[in-house]
Amino acid sequence: MTFVLAAAAIFLVAVLLIISAKRRGSPYQAAFSSSSSAWSGRLRQSRGPRAKFYEGGWIRFAQPSGRGSEFLPGCLQVVGPEDAGLEIRFIKPDKEPAEITFGRKHCDSYSHVELKALTVSREHAVITVEGPDWTVRSLSSKNPVRVNGQALSDCGSSLILRAGDTIEMGPAQFQFRQG
Questions:
Q1: CB of 175 within 8 A of CB of 164?
Q2: How far apart are CA 128 and CA 100, in angstroms?
Q3: Is 63 exposed, middle or buried (CB count within 10 Å of its CB: 0-12, 13-18, 19+)?
Q4: Fewer CB within 10 Å: N-end or C-end of the chain?
Q5: Cα-based angle 165, 166, 169 (whole degrees, multiple of 5)
Q6: According to the model, what pLDDT value does residue 68 have?
Q7: Distances from the Cα of 131 to the Cα of 18, 33, 113, 139, angstroms
Q8: H or E element that contains 19
Q9: d(C-alpha 54, C-alpha 45), whole Å
């Protein structure tokens, strides 16, 4: 009986220590804010030494440190609904073509942008980057991807992006920037 009570007490202390550590934060989770509304979310460090994630109210994506990383030639700039002006850059993979996925599903990857809206499918769209060409392809049959206000016709439809094109996925709006 004494052994069971001692084991239960040790277990309870361990649970309380874990809860306390989560409330204080750990080296892998830190609040990040600035006077700029573009950085009003949190940055969270993943298991890797350079994997930090921007987390806003409706968007989550990797923020590469830039040290030793080569980026793809181009980026997406957030137009709305929040965090206007925020730039999303992507690390160039070892092999081409690079694929960047968009959707509601949670994923700790440099090549995924999580969009937290019910009008976004779990696997909503993919942008393929091959050389200077960025091509957006719809993966959703229910929720359209719009480029410059025009819906891609079907699931699987694609379009090569041009500098200044606006891409909409649910409430998320991005502007494509070349180079």
A1: yes
A2: 6
A3: buried
A4: N
A5: 140
A6: 66
A7: 47, 35, 21, 22
A8: helix 2-24
A9: 9
In this predicted model, what pLDDT tens digit does every residue of 111-159 receive, in sequence order? 899 999 999 999 999 999 988 899 999 998 888 899 999 998 777 789 9
Q: What are phi and psi of 29, to 5 degrees?
A: -145, 120
pLDDT beyond 60 at 13: no
Would you state the structure tokens that stand for residue 96, as one six-digit string? 């081409």
Q: Say which amino acid occupies 147.
A: V
Which two three-digit tokens encode residue 23?
């409330």
| pLDDT tens digit sequence for 34-91 | 223 333 344 443 444 356 888 888 889 888 766 667 888 899 999 987 888 889 988 8
- Three-class DSSP category at 160: strand
Tokens found for residue 156: 């699987």
Give burial (CB, 10 Å; 0-12/13-18/19+) of 45.
middle
Locate tokens 């081409």: which residue?
Answer: 96
Which residue type, as a one-letter code, is found at position 106?
H
In three-state secondary structure terms, 10 is: helix
50 three-class SS: coil
Q: State both tokens at 147.
A: 């480029």
